[in-house]
Write a structure and sequence with these properties.
With about 180 residues, the protein is an alpha+beta fold. The protein has two domains: about 60 residues, no CATH class; about 110 residues, no CATH class. Helix content is about 35%, strand content about 30%. The chain is built from three helices and eight strands. The strands form two sheets. Strands 1-2-3-4-5-8 form a six-stranded antiparallel beta sheet, with helices on both faces. Helix 1 packs across helix 2.
């Protein structure tokens, strides 16, 4: 985060320098306010590029076999422009290289998932996808599935629209 702040200041200084050069080349015909306006525009432009480009950079850096299965592009109240120009602020990726059928049944697939969110660390979890019922559950210390495939300590969650985790898990398990 500190590096991005420094880079924003560098962008502001660079844009202000270009504006100063243009003022000098125009022999002072351009208004003085152009220099701070250019600095502000450079800083805002850099911030917009970094925010909107975050998802693309993160998704491109995923290793082969790790696929994005869900993106959060909901409008944000403090960023009203996201109603017009959606921005991915979080996403979920599944490691299809490590898919395994649960001993409780071939329709239950165990998958490693990774949650990514801007300005936060990576959240790693184990998910069980029920291919027959199009539902899933994240496993933790309280939520477990026994060898017979019976869930305890949690509830199955239907796969949400736009979430391709069941498709990725069920297809990946049948391919492997």
């Amino acid at each position: 985060m500190a590096i991005e702040l420094i880079a924003a200041f560098v962008a502001a200084i660079a844009c202000a320098g270009i504006a100063m050069l243009l003022r000098k080349l125009s022999r002072g015909r351009l208004p003085k306010w152009l220099v701070p306006a250019a600095a502000g525009a450079g800083m805002i432009g850099y911030a917009v590029v970094m925010e909107y480009g975050w998802y693309g950079r993160q998704a491109a850096a995923l290793p082969e076999g790790v696929v994005v299965v869900w993106q959060d592009q909901r409008p944000q109240a403090l960023r009203p422009w996201t109603m017009v120009f959606p921005m991915t602020s979080r996403f979920l990726a599944m490691d299809t290289r490590t898919l395994a059928a649960h001993p409780g049944g071939a329709d239950l697939i165990l998958a490693e998932v990774y949650g990514f969110a801007r300005w936060q660390g990576i959240d790693q979890a184990l998910m069980v996808v029920d291919c027959a019922a199009n539902r899933s559950v994240r496993l933790n210390a309280q939520t477990k599935i026994d060898d017979a495939g019976v869930l305890t300590g949690g509830e199955w969650v239907p796969i949400a629209e736009g979430d391709t985790s069941a498709q990725a898990a069920c297809k990946g398990a049948s391919d492997g």
